[in-house]
Amino acid sequence: MNISSTHVIHGLKTALAAVLAYATTMLLNLEFGHWAVISTVIVMQIYVADSIEMCLYRLSGTTVGAILGVLVLFVTPPNSIFIGVALFMTIGICSFLTRYKTRYRMAAITVVIIVMTGIDVENIFIFGLFRVFEIAIGILCAFVISVLVFPKRRVDVLMERLESQSLECTKKCCVLVDAFISKQQNVEGTLVDDLVRDVWENHSLLQKINQHEAMIYRKKLNIKFSDKVSLMNRSVEHLRNMVRTLNSLDDDGYDIIMSPELKKLAEESGKTLSATMKNEFLVTTNKLENMVTDLDIKLLNIRKEGLIRRFDSKKLIQVFSFYSSLQYFAEDILAGAKICKS
Fold it and tell me: Which residue has the higher pLDDT, 271 or 121?
């Protein structure tokens, strides 16, 4: 689904929720039913998680604002000056409290609604109660339409992001290994920076999913997203270490004896990572596991044969640092694949 179609559906859903709220208030013959319609427009968001978050903010903020508004009307004389002072204080307090909770912005809006429209009413308590009821109708209509009509879930977005990031991670790893076996060439220092930032955004996305979508789409969340997000984060950190290692020296490099094995390890690690993110658990991890073991054995034999004596101390550190980062990259993917598969 492209951006334009997403926003078209969002517009249709918002309009549908507004009409549903309007029809409900007409059916119940509510005098200020327009507040319900306005509320649907305020809380309706593209993604279900964001809509639920706004619904909760709007409902809790409305309740707080209604209580403040009713109290203001009870204790403030019906004089424009006193009302102005009361508005100044309540709105100022609510706006200040937004530094702690966003819902207090909604509380400020509700205070204005109740105070400005309820100055001359006889029963202030009933008036405030009905305003909360009308806004709650709008919130409920927005919630129902958001969840039931073409729902756009953050959990689906996270799945797509993880799959895309795994492919990009594989691509970057192969680039780094090619640079390493090509006599340890330097690479662009920012090679993986965009990927690192993109991966870190998964954490806030996952938090929203756990807070607002978990109760509705519990079955879809049984895919161990937390483990996948952590695995992706560790994977890009290994890539970043490889970049630093390659750029640590500017001198001429050496041919690497295990070049074919390292390339195959990078490719197989990427395949396993991608399969894990796509839940393709029929793909076995035995091949990658055997490659890691065989590579360790071959490296041990090379050391016994004294073939690493050609490296000076700095180059030796660089070579083993890169090798270790690639090995940890593969081992983390192996461990993560087993956890997600279990």
Answer: 271
Angle at 296 between CA 290 and CA 299, to 5 degrees: 135
The 10 Å Cβ neighbour count of residue 277 is 25
Burial of 259 (C-beta count, 10 Å sphere; 0-12/13-18/19+): middle
| 1 band by pLDDT with thresholds 50, 70 and 90 | very low
pLDDT band per the 50, 70, 90 thresholds, residue 33: confident
How deeply is 197 buried, as exposed, middle or buried, from its count of CB atoms within 10 A (0-12, 13-18, 19+)? exposed
Most confident of 84-88, 255-259, 327-331: 327-331
User: What's the CA dihedral at 187, 190, 191, 196 to 10 degrees?
Assistant: 140
Q: How far apart are the first and last CA of the chain?
A: 32
Query: Token pair for residue 108?
Result: 């400020």
Residues 129, 139: Cα–Cα separation, whole Å: 15
pTM confidence score: 0.75
Instruction: Find how far residue 200's CA is from the centre of its chain.
Output: 9
Nearest Cα residue to 223 out of 101, 105, 57, 342: 342
pLDDT category at 54 given cuts 50, 70, 90 is confident
> Tokens 């009933």 correspond to what residue?
126
Percent helix / strand / coil, the chain, rounded to 5: 75, 0, 25
| Residue whose pair of structure tokens reads 């999913």 in the numeric block | 209
Calculate mean pLDDT across residues 55-76. 84
Residue 214 CA: distances (Å) to CA of 175, 199, 219, 221, 336: 38, 21, 9, 7, 22
